[in-house]
Automatic annotation (TrEMBL):
Residues 12-361 form the Enoyl reductase (ER) domain. The keyword Ribonucleoprotein does not apply. Its cofactor is Zn(2+). Transmembrane segments: none annotated. GO terms for biological process: sorbitol catabolic process. Coiled coil: none annotated. This is Sorbitol dehydrogenase. Belongs to the zinc-containing alcohol dehydrogenase family.
Length: 363
């Protein structure tokens, strides 16, 4: 095996370096992965430009990247379901598997969880990375490595739609037409939503969303909340959305969601912005508009309404792979840019331009 393990290491704000790091060794239940493709996420860029996201602060050098696909290069002694040469998508979070959250199926809420490229855990922008085998998922032959890297953000959208209980025929409003917003729109459509409206400030992103299947698009730039609300309801044939998926994290968008959602409906908060925002909470409370958070994703959970072993349901990564492999969800229309690992800094600069939906780095 080559000793080359070039990696993109963040040392601080605007200090991203390419460095050689030791090739890790897999433990008994781990695999060594030869990384193929990594998608750049907004969180990667935020760590690069700000050095922190909330309480997660870069205090020591950290490898970036978490939207990852690759090839199994070596397996641990206890690994049974994978073999050398398997093409995989990697779920980048690891939980303790022992706490109440883990044991009841909501391991994404585990207080001891570790996540690629979230301080102090290294990410996957490397030639090689080690990961727990049970968080690696085989890719079907008809999915590319780029599809494999997109499984991660698509899983965010699947979990968000599940949290919103999006059902066949539902009217859905997605606020924000960035990568996560567009993936939520596509996911809602794939599970049978009747009509999906998406909002944004950028005509280019809205045009792409329309091309990919949005039933209506609304540019909210310079408009009052009342005007935006009226446009949304008009686009939904005079009716309010039952589900709003908020993907921006900005105050006016959150307020729009609260005032526009149908009484008894659901708002899912996906976008993360300021720590505190002013919202019309009485409007939500008196109309029983549920406001639900969402954090990453899970691959199984316990439905406590079912008193049997079948109450464990698979979600997110397996669902994302099946949706793509079956053709029920098509991501080929997403605009893309491609860079080599040696061009990581250029790739991050390109991502900030936001002229394509996803920037990929081939490792």
């Amino acid at each position: 095996m080559s000793e080359d393990n070039l990696s993109a290491v963040l040392h601080g704000v605007d200090d991203l370096r390419l460095e050689q790091v030791p090739i890790p060794k897999p433990g008994p239940n781990q695999v060594l992965v030869r990384v193929h493709t990594v998608g750049i996420c907004g969180s990667d860029v935020h760590f690069w430009t700000h050095g922190a996201i909330g309480s997660f602060v870069v205090k020591e050098p950290m490898i970036l990247g978490h939207e990852t696909s690759g090839v199994v290069s070596e397996i641990g002694s206890e690994v049974q379901h994978l073999k050398v040469g398997d093409r995989i998508a990697m779920e980048p979070g690891l939980a303790c598997k022992l706490c109440e959250h883990c044991k009841t199926g909501r391991y994404n809420l585990c207080p001891e969880s570790r996540f690629f490229a979230t301080p102090p855990t290294n990410g996957a922008l490397s030639r090689f990375v080690v990961h727990d085998a049970d968080f690696c998922f085989k890719l079907p032959d008809n999915l590319s490595f780029e599809d494999g890297a997109l499984i991660e953000p698509l899983s965010v959208a699947i979990h968000s739609c599940r949290r919103g209980n999006v059902q066949m025929g539902h009217r859905v409003l997605v606020l924000g037409a960035g990568p996560i917003g567009v993936l939520n729109m596509l996911t809602a459509k794939s599970v049978g939503a009747g009509k999906v409206v998406i909002t944004d400030l950028d005509d280019g992103r809205l045009a792409l969303a329309k091309k990919l299947g949005a039933d209506a698009t609304i540019n909210v730039k310079g408009k009052s909340l009342e005007a935006v609300r009226a446009e949304i309801i008009s686009a939904l044939d005079g009716q309010q959305p039952q589900v709003c998926i908020e993907c921006t994290g900005v105050q006016p968008s959150i307020e729009t969601a609260i005032t526009t959602t149908k009484s008894g409906g659901v708002i899912v908060l996906v976008g993360l912005g300021a720590d505190r925002v002013e919202i019309p909470i009485i409007e939500s409370a008196t109309r029983e508009v549920d406001i639900r958070g969402t954090f990453r994703y899970v691959n199984w959970y316990v439905d406590h309404t079912l008193q049997c072993s079948s109450s464990f349901k698979t979600l997110s990564y397996p669902t994302a792979i099946e949706l793509l492999s079956s053709g029920k969800l098509d991501l080929s229309g997403l605009t893309r840019a491609h860079y080599k690992l040696e061009e990581t800094l250029e790739a991050f600069k390109r991502n900030r331009k936001a002229d394509v939906m996803k920037v990929f780095i081939q490792c």
